[in-house]
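This week, study the protein below.
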Amino acid sequence: LLSSGTKPAGLPGTSTALPAQASQISTVQDLIQNSEYLIRSLTSPDLFGDERDGIVAKLNQLLSACGVGNGYYKGDQQPISYTAENPFYQFKAIGYSRRSDYCDSDGIIALTLGINYEQLSRATQRQKFIDSMNLILGNNTNVRAHIELIRPLPDNQTEVLLYVTEKGKGRSSSKELCAFLKQPTQDIQLKSQLCVVNILPRTIVDDAKKHAFIKNPPAGTRFDSQIWQQAVRENPDPDKLLPYPIRGFEQLRKRQELQAAEIRLEERIVEELNQKLMQINSKLITGQNQCSYQRQRHKELSHRLLRCLAMQSLLQQYTISIDSAEEKLETRLEALNASLVAPDQIKLC
C-alpha cells in the first residue's frame, strides 16, 4: 500500500511529496498558459476589434524578436513580458571558442584576479605574486609556483595561468592543484592576498565530452537543433574549436571585449619582442665593434711581438760566440768567394 503512493494522512513523507507534485503540475500549467498568451499576443491580440489589432500584433512580434517590452493581447488581461528567454528572440548566434591544449598532467590552472593587468605587467610585480603563491602553497622549498601566462580580461580583471612543480616529482596535476587551492584556508588566503575571484583547471576537453557537448544545443539556450548542427558541420577547425552559443548583446559585448583584450595582449607581446630585438641588435653592434677593435689590437700586438723577437734575436747574436756550424758556413762562403774572383772566372760587372 505504501509503495503504491496512496499513503494515509499523517504518515512520513505525505506532507512533502504531495506539495512537490502539485508545484510541478502548477509549473507545467503556468508554462502552457504563458505560451498560449505569448502566441496570442503575436498572432491574434484582441484589443480594438479592427485593423489596429494587426498593427499591435506586428509591434508585439518586433518586441518579442528584440526581447524587450510588454505585449498586450487582451484589454482585461495583464500584458506578457518579452525577455531574451522567449523562443522568438532573434538576437542570438553561434560563435566558436578555442579548445585548451593543456593536459591534466601539465598542471595548468587559471586564476581570475580582480585587479588590472598593469598591476602584474612588470617582472618585479610578477615575482611578488609568485612569492605570495609560494607562501600559500606552504612555503616549502621543494614546491614552487611558476607563471605560464598572464592575460587581461574585461571589467579590470586579469587571468593568470600557472603551474606548480615539486622537487623530484615534477608538475602537480591540474585537478589536484585546483582541489588544494579551493580548500577553505587556501581559498581565503587567495581572496585576501591576491584578489582571486575564480579558480579553474585548464585542461583539454576529451573526445567523449566533446561529442556529448556538440550533439545537442546546451541546456537553457533554446537554440534550434538544426541551427546548432549546422554550426557543428561548418566548424572551420573541429579539432581546435568548439561551437559556443551567443544570446543577446551583453554576451556578444563580453566576447568582443575578450577578443579585444586578447588583441591587446598580443600587441604587448609583439612590442616586448620588438624591444628585446632592439636590445639584442644594440648588443650585437656593440659586440661587433668590440670584435673589430680587438682584431686591430691583435694585429698591433702581433707586429710589436715580431719586432721584439727580432730585436731579441739580434741581441743574442752579440752575446753568443760563433759556433762550429757558423765557422763551417763561413769557410764555405770564403771558398765560394775565392772561386768567383779567380783569374779564369767570368767577371760580373
